[in-house]
Amino acid sequence: MEKKNEENNDKMEKQIDAINKQIETQMHFAYNDTIRVALDNCDYEFIGKLYAEIRDSLCNFVKKDGKTYLKIVSDFDVDFLKELMKNKQLSNDHLHGVVHMTFGWVLKMQAPFRDTETEASKNRVLLGIDAEDIVPSYINEVHKCLNFIEHDIQELVENRDHPVVKTMLQRGLECKGIKK
Predict the structure, then answer these.
(1) Helix (H) or strand (E) holding 142
(2) CA terminus-to-terminus distance, the chain
């Protein structure tokens, strides 16, 4: 009897996992459709807000008002992007520049072992033919990379007392000229 209950529970868990995966997929498509509709309607405020969210996420990884923070804010010129969209001047060249700049920042902030994965993400975005392909892919791929950075930072914090992590952090301080 107990074995049958376990089998039923396993079966139910698999069904729930499948349903959750379907919901996740549908939400992903709906989100991308929302972005495409915003592009079709030249909703530069919405697209600007998504772009600003990426900028702000990167800024959260650095000291507020520090040199790096100010450079990120400068590089992610949200108002300029919105003006380009408003005046129907947003070209693939502009989008490719945004893609290269954003992934450049991601590469600088992430753990080096993520570099290959991030380059692959950037290349997937650059395969897009026009804004309707590039922008949703850009937003999705950048958010995946940002999630990895957050995950890796959390792992580092949780394991900060591990000897390997301590050595790595000490080397980082020494590279910055800080002796401990």
Answers:
(1) helix 131-158
(2) 62
CB 17 within 8 A of CB 47: no
- The position carrying tokens 């008002």 is 65
Biggest CA–CA distance in the chain, Å, is 69
The model's pLDDT over 47-86, given as tens digits with 9 standing for 90+, comes to 999 999 999 999 999 999 899 999 999 999 999 999 998 8
**In 3D, which of 84, 169, 173, 174 has the Cα closest to residue 135?**
84
pTM for this entry:
0.79
Q: Which of 85, 86, 103 is nearest to 94 (CA)?
A: 85
Cβ atoms within 10 Å of 43's Cβ, excluding its own: 16
Using CA atoms, how far apart are residues 163 and 180, in angstroms rounded to an integer?
15
Cβ(107)–Cβ(95) under 8 Å?
A: no
Tokens of 145: 């990379």
Q: Are 160 and 72 in contact (CB under 8 A)?
A: no
